[in-house]
Amino acid sequence: MNKRQTRSFALISTAIAVVVFLGLTVDSHRQFPKLTNADQITPQVTRGKDVWHQYNCINCHTLFGEGAYYAPDLTKISQQRGAPYLTAFLKDPSKFYDEQRHRRLMPNLNLDDEEIAGLIAFLDWVSKVDNQGWPPRPILVTGSSIPGTDLAVAQQDVSGSTPSDSRLPPGARPVSGTEDPIALGEALFRTATPVCSACHSIAPGVNLAGPTLAGLASRAKQVIASADYQGGAKDVEGFIRESIVTPSAYLHPGEMYSADGMSFMPNTYPKSLTSEQIDQLVAYLASFQ
User: Fold this and answer.
1) CB–CB of 223/250 below 8 Å?
2) pLDDT tens-digit readout, 143-183
3) Per-residue pLDDT tens for 248-276?
4) Which of 151, 187, 202, 279 is paired with 160 by a 20 to 30 Å CA distance?
C-alpha cells in the first residue's frame, strides 16, 4: 500500500467511524426517554434529586456503580428495601446500624418529611431505570451482631455467592435433582424479586435489613408457642408461609424491622411468586433448624 492509498484508507476509516459514532449517539438519545422512564420524573423526583446533591450523598454512596464506594450502591435500594424501611432509616440511621458492630455509621442528616419523601421518590425512579444489569448485584456492607462471627461468610451470602458447603446448614447445601423443592427454594431465595438474600443472611448472628434466617425453624416453634403470638400459623411451615405472604402478621422484635405496626418486609411476594414457588421457598427456609 503506497502513501496515497494509506492516506485514503485512514480518511475513509475515520469517516466511517464518525458516521457510526454519530448514528449510535443519535440512537442512544432516541431511546433515553424510554430507558430512563422520563415520563415518571415528577416534581417530587426532582426534589429528591436536589436533596441527593444538597447533602452530597454521592460522597459515600454510588448510583449505577458510580460514586465513592464507601457505602452501598443505592441503584436498586428502593426495590431491595421498600419505602417504609427507607423512611424509618433516614429518620434515624442509628436504630439500624452501630458503628462498633458494623464498622461504619450513617450520619443523621435530620431530613424533614418532605425531603425524605422526595429522596425516596428519586431513588425509586433510579431503581426503575433500565441500566442493562449494572451493577451486576447489590453492593451491600454488612457486619456481625455478635463477636466472632465470620464476616466473610456474611458478605458472600449477601453478594449472592455460595459459601463452602461445610459452612452451610444442611438444607442450604447443594442437592442432586432439579425437582427437589429445597433446591428450587434456594434458587428462589437468591433470585426472587425483591431478592431475599439482599435483606436476610443465613449466617448465625448476622442481621442485615432483616433478621438472620439461621435457626429459623427453631425460632418459629418458639414464637408459635408464645402467648404474644397473634398469627394464625399452627406449625413451622405455616409460620414461614405467613411471614412471606402477610409479613405484618408477626413483627420480629426490634425497631429496625418494623414501624407503626407494619413490617418492613415487602408484601408483594404473593403477586410475584406462584403458590408453588412459595411452597418451595417455605421448604428451603424450614430446613434451617
Assistant:
1) yes
2) 333 333 333 333 333 333 344 443 444 444 444 445 788 88
3) 988 888 878 888 888 888 888 988 889 99
4) 279
